Amino acid sequence: MEYAIMAIRHELRREIVRTLRDEGRSMEVEEIATSTNERIQLVHIHLPKLAELGVIEYDGVVLEPADRFEEVAEVLEKVETVTA
To answer: What domain range is 44 assigned to?
Structure first.
């Protein structure tokens, strides 16, 4: 469970989980990043962290849900429901 909290600790990581959940498909970084600054943060900080936690698979271009994705998406949904 600790990895789920680490995964959704930052807003950009929550947005990645939301986007992958809503789209239901693999995506390229360029489809998620809304600015150059955000892309840099995603590529150098947040995507590697989510990959390290087993939430996504990321090859430097494409990201897709990994083994722990569904559990993290469920935790995020519960957190958002409670805080709404």
So the answer is: 2-79
